[in-house]
Amino acid sequence: MKYKINKIDIEEGAQNFSLTEDIKKRLKEIPDNTVLLNNESYEYTDMDKETLRLLSFKGEFLKPCPGTNNYICCGYQILNIGTNCPLDCSYCILQAYFNKPSLRVFVNLENELARVAQIIDNSPEKLFRIGTGEFTDSLALDEIHRFSGLLSEFIQKKKNSVIEYKTKTTEIKRLFDIKTRERLIISWSLNSPYIVSHEEHKAPSLEQRLTAAKKCQDEGFITGFHFDPLIIHSGWKEQYMKTIDLMDKYLDPQKIIWISMGCIRFVPALKKIILKRHPDTIILDGEFIQGLDGKFRYFKPVRIEMYKFMRNLIEEWAGFNPGLYMCMESDEIWRESLGWSPGISDGLSDYLDDRVRSFWYF
Amino acid sequence: MSHIIKKENHPLITIEIDKISTQPGKYCMSYNFDNLELVKSIKDIGLVNKPYIVKDNERYQPVTGYRRITALKSLNIKDIECFDLTASGMTCSELLSFAIYDNIFTRSFNLIEKSMVLNRLHLFIKDVNEVNTLLRKLNINPRELKQLQALENLNEQEKELIASDLLSMKALNELNDIRDTDDFTIYVDYINKLKLNYNQQIQFIDYIFDLTRINNTNISLLLKNSPYINIFEDENLNTPQKAKKIIDLLREQRNPDFTKLQNAFENKINKLKLPSNIRIKHPRFFEAEGYQLEVNFKNGTELKDDLKSLIEKDGLDEVCDPWSNKKP
After folding, report:
1. CA distance B46 to chain A (A)
2. ipTM score
3. pLDDT tens digits, residue range B110-140?
4. Which chain A residues are Cβ-neighbours of B256 within 8 angstroms?
């Protein structure tokens, strides 16, 4: 376990789950205490990332990604395994999204999978592209909760679904114990070496991530990559070229299901939090405009330039289009940057479903 | 509160004015007021409405008439006639309601005064319905309660700025992290000097925060650059014009590429020399796709003529995204 945990808080109602006991055993040297629900006082500068909080989550475990208004979204399904993350990326939306600190693990996940199964089974015609990496890093705490094994087994029984574990870490050891590779996607969030070292605090280096990705590819896993957020910084073109060079060194593009791109965007409330928590950041230095969804993003020609540049680099390297898509962008940006557009969110959903079908038979 | 109607419950007494506290007490809701007119009126015709007071330990507290009492003190008047509510049997909350209603229909409250009222309401009045009624009468948005309540605890300089409407609550909040630094005073001085409206205050702070952070400088050095100095010293500009120019310059410096392209687009449109009833507009930040044509016309014939002349305009087919090199 690479991430330091100092304390385990167990919320009332979470004590009797077998996972709680398992985690206590796995972390037996770390003190634990039972706490009352919502007893914490919270100051946004302190995310309390060294406390593991075990709780029984009362909300829906499987929900469609809310996406964003007025832009094309991909129709992803979020499987909620916990919130917050031991990494400390300066741009992380979770800093503003959740108003509760600590690394939160939902210990009742296993008990709730029947409900998730019901949702999937109720729409047999639909392909569920499920991910666990929206509200936390999918694998950073896998050594502790071991959800990758549980969920991979679950997904095998749900033939109309795939699951994507999205991470910035090298916590892949447990993946190799999974008996199948069927409909499992292991994805890494990538950036330029400069952004990785200056803005993605506590995250492994690019080379470490790509080494892990290579191991997964070698072990028969299908991989995905996410250039999100793309960030303007001094020498950004050369910087992103270095990343593609490293991808070339480690990866087989044939084993990539998709590569997403998204220029940095943030809700207005996040700016103050970022500056408070990461005063030396450069991510807010660019020129931002308020987009159609109210979020700050780069001015349109800047985004087009970045996407076009990345597309050329990636396609040149891969020799084909390895499932490039954009997260939360407009039809116009799609056409200008990638030369085509899915038109609407359903169109992008269909495109990504087709990518899935090109790897696995349904 | 029916017992306050009875005269015997609040006898008219004459006491030495020094026995009445002029420290803002439990019922005071006056801050940053100008007493000149009141002093003049008392001097000319005397005190028309007698204050209400209540004994609190050894001294009297004004319940209503705090401003009148301070005016009389400034006139060196020794004795004052007041209604004494000490034996009225009124509770603190009733006295507070009495004071609020005395003020509410005769004047508006500045933000610090609203804060004073809120803090006293919070202390004495537990009945939620009564509190809500009073909040409505005071035009207080329940979502702003916490922020408003905190205002009374600001330091004097900050309170005066807020009470005089020279600084918005939001702007003060934005400046929160530098409140104990010299920069705070510099920001406030510029905001006052330029008489920035609330919206401009936020823009001014936001642009300067960004520019000083990105360029590793401070507000004093930034605004001492010649383009800013030129605006400040331009005698042909009045204060609102200077304010607008400063904000525009800050925006341009913060977003040079956007400003350049926006200007390029607008120059292109200006060159078309469109009649005043026709406008071509770009979407906000060019973010949505396409442009808008706005035509005001009296009838269909005029519209046809307008469109015909528009179609024949030289340079119309040059109108395109300002970052696009290709001719559409």
Report:
1. 55
2. 0.89
3. 899 889 888 888 887 777 787 788 788 888 8
4. 287
